Input
Amino acid sequence: MTTDHSTAAPTALTSRASLARLWPFVRPEAGRLALSAALALAAMVCGLVIPLIVQRIVDGPIAEKDLAGLWWPGGLLLLAGVGEALLFGLRRWVAARPATRVQAVLRQQIYDRLQELPVAYHDGIGSGQLLSRAVSDLSTIRMFLSFGAIFLVVNALTFLIGLGILFSLSWLLALVVLAQAVPLIVICARYESHYKVLARRSQDQVGDVATTVEESILGVRILKSFGRSAHLGREFFRQASALRTTEIAKARMIAKLWATIIALPEIALGVCLLLGITAVADGAMSAGTLVAFFTVAMILRWPIDSLGWLLSLLNDAASASERYFEVIDAPVTITSPAHPVRLPDEGAAGALTFQDVRFHFPDAADRPDVLAGIDLRLEPGATVAVVGATGSGKTALTALVNRMYDVTGGRVLLDGVDVRDLALTDLRAAVSVAFEEPILFSASVAENITLGRPDSTDEEVARAISVAQADFVYDLPWGLSTRVGEQGLTLSGGQRQRLALARAVIGNPRVLVLDDPLSALDIHTEAAVERALRSVLHSTTALIIAHRASTVMMADQVALLQDGRIAAVGTHQELLARVPAYRALLSSAEPDREPDHLRLSEGSVR
Amino acid sequence: MSTATDHGHPGDLPDDPTAATDWRGVGDDGTTGDGDVQPGGLRLAGGSRDLIRELARPHRRRLILAGLVIGLDQAVSVAGPLLIAYGIDTAVPAFVAGDRGPLFLAVGLYLLTALASALTRLVFVRMSGRISQDVLRGLRARVFDHAQQLSVSFHEKYTSGRVISRMTSDLETIGETLETGINDLIAGLLSVVVISGVLLWLDPKLGAVALLAFLPLSFVTRWFQRRSLSIYRGSRTAMASLIVQFTETMNGLRAVQTFRREPRNARIFAEDNNRFARNDGDALVVAGVYSPTVRLIGNVALTAVMILGAIDVVNGSIEVGILAAFLLYLRRMYDPMDELAMFYNQAQSAAAALEKIATLLGQRPSVQEPGHPTPLAEPAGELRFESVGFGYSAEREVLPRFDLTVPAGQTIALVGATGAGKTTLARLLARFYDPTEGRVLLDGVDLRELANDDLRRALVMVTQESFLFSGSVADNIALGKPTASRAEIEEAAAAVGVADFVKALPQGYDTDVRKRGGRLSAGQRQLVAFARAFLADPAVLILDEATASLDIPSEQAVQAALHRVLHGRTAVIIAHRLSTVSIADRVLVMDHGRIVEDGSPAELIAGQGRFAQLDTAWRESLA
Output
């Protein structure tokens, strides 16, 4: 299985710009974050004051052997120490919540956006890529906001202030410290541009790994059936190894940077030691000043040391936000119109019209249209079955009604209104669908049935259950409160299909779209569902995708879908008599069967 | 490692079903928790300690080496303040006396240590990066393999979202810690030890005063550990439920949009999301108490040392350079504490994640591969149930005890209403579950005695589930037999009619099923599943409702292919459509877990039993 890379070549510009785009989300918390930075700075200053006090102690009471003179600077020392600790505490208190709130808002927004994005978007992207953006990329951003951003500012300022103090202590020595900053900045800048590429690659690979993880779990039964867990396991190992290689490359780069960041300031300090000792010996500088100088320089080591870590955090966050905004920026192509038309109320039983409907999937514009000019009209209350070979576009046709996809030509009209002129919620409230594969959520039976109509009464629920012949739900351990779906009780395919059907028929939707809704039912249940469904169907417009004669029989009219067009419309009997292609699809007199096998199927339309 | 089996425990009814959020409904797995062990104390639960040991073992040598390097690094960097002290106390007077030797010695050594420290750090970061990536990859692979080994019953209970969260978010948390935190944590902890030693050596009295600070420090640290671990346990659980909601929404997006579930989903997601944010914030607040307290203790100790040290200098018992060294060392020890606390915080979050993973790894598959499997060279395909009984839980018996023999080469059809136990029987054959009593035998060998590879080579099950893996159509078919040539793949595909629609795909067999034009309908996916099974070429083929979504021509194509393929093979076919049954040599009718009719299709139709009735009803439905 190949990997699902969606790598975009990262450029400094786009990822920096993405980081800047976080601003509107940060703004509500900006005050607190700024306060936090200010407090951190104040704490750092307190820290920097400490060596100056020690300088006084060394040059004052110690040099003059005046023990009584110790109290005053000693008290100051304690004050500065306590102040530093308190300010640091305050800084953390102030900064604790804002970044997590920003993260929560960002995460909610990507979730909302993904719910909004059309099915076509989701078709094209590995779900693990989405998950890794919503989870790991956002935690990278959170980390950057609560530490990285603050310390980048604070450390830079601390460095400047510290440098000022160094200059006040000894301008010569301070110049040496300043001089080493120049190559440091150059090296950091160079490193950054290399690191960015790796950061993005690693995040994409994390997404690939997540995609394989997801598939391995969602497809675990198939893997087990074929004993192919090890096969996918090897693929997973290959991806994990690719990720490892990238991460090791990152570590090597960080190692090199870190070594530089350690070496340069230390060399500068070595030079300072030489000059300092000479100066003290010459009497040009006091011993206290030298001690203070080295202590301040030592305090400044952390802001410099942390630079490597902060820069990698910055780059990780920049490419994480780039990945984040890729999702946010994906165009929502299916939206409510600016001025939606309301569905006509009176006498509107749901006339559904396809007018010269053309359709191809958004990313397959160069392929022949899946639907190439469909003209079909469903009168209010009519039930029309659509029959066609596997892959003839039946499901695509149903997806156009409630705008899972939009037509690429022609129009779909509901009660005379183009579905694209309706508010999405109105349209989807009017059109109910049972999918070919029933989708249940981890929620109670009642919740699953009333998914689209949460205000349904108990009677309506009971009626939907009886139409779908889903009475088995009453026998579940907690009845309608039983949790089903993945986190609940495991239901059989037939049971799931009936629940999905109950969900579709509840509340008398204007239009009912049933995509092969009875495929997993046994013959008795199927017959019972069909009987019950008729009571619903005579008042509702229904479009039914059918593979079997038994399902087709529920319809007033049958439309044969062939080569992207409606090739024939008529009753089942008419088409059976008149259209050979239809006969081929729905009847099955097989010429090459031995008699004993034919016995069972004779008289059938198999 | 705990040895809980993953079999769904029957579980009592929750005391108060309304306690759970209403819409979630009631299940028997405990609605709120995430089913994992929730340890209260400081000890890491779920065998995390053993896991850490196991993970570290293969890298023991490199770990020791890395330890030596970082030890060297600390020794080298700790020399700095000593050299400064030496400079002040010795080099200055010597310089004044005209001796430049000590000065050059101090400066030369200082520069040397600077370079050595940079070099050791370079080596250490590279080594630890490599080791931690190896550990991480090993852990990833291990969790992946383990999840694959765990039985179907486990996956049905634990839910995919939670396994996914263990394998993504939890693992990444550990990865982040290994990547950034561990280096600093180890370096920081080591420097505390080394500096303590040096301080005691420089001046025992002042050193003891400085080290007195460790007493309150250890109390605060214990408090912090306890609090933050418990908070992070909560946040890993919150993250798991967030991921469950996320994956469920994305995988069911069509239904979400169709039934306008978005606003409600958004609210549900917000709940988990806010819970996680709250937890995350709590953890930062706790760290926000811890790290300034550490700083406070450090600064108080510093003041005490400075004052006492100043008195000693005045009394002449120590040199001023020693005092300077103390100042530098204490700063160096406490300065990065703020960040150390942050890394420590991260390590706590990783510990919580590791616990979750260890708990997952501690799950023993209820269906286990035997230690000494019986070899199965050329499977013939005879199936036998010997006094087999089965229930998913003790009080829910699904299959009362029964015996059944399917001779090699026979095609049997299982017929019966929904819930009659057909699928359960098939799952016992495929060893998704083991029977609660009796034995299931393939060619006279208990399935529990067979190696997985042998079993899966001999026996393949196709269900109505038609999940496709990312990759091309050919890749998906080749899953049945990874060594298959392209010709074999195309042959299998042609046999069931996959070839017909593949022609229309943009890149034919190489079309990515997730990308451009690769969208396959449910029927097409089912055909791919069939092609996969045909390619696997097993002695026993089990089809569980595998033709439900096919249209009649496709079904006929599949049946024609089956007819050919099943010759000389054993097959168990479950179908609601009696057309599929027509290719069977023998029909078993099941009702409430019992086999109530058994005979050839012709015999049964001729009789008055259920199958005859079914057949009649079926014919009527086709009229």
About this structure: DSSP finds 21 helices and ten strands in chain B. Residues 1-20, 29-39 of chain B have pLDDT under 50 and may be disordered. Residues 254 and 402 of chain B are 43 Å apart (CA to CA).
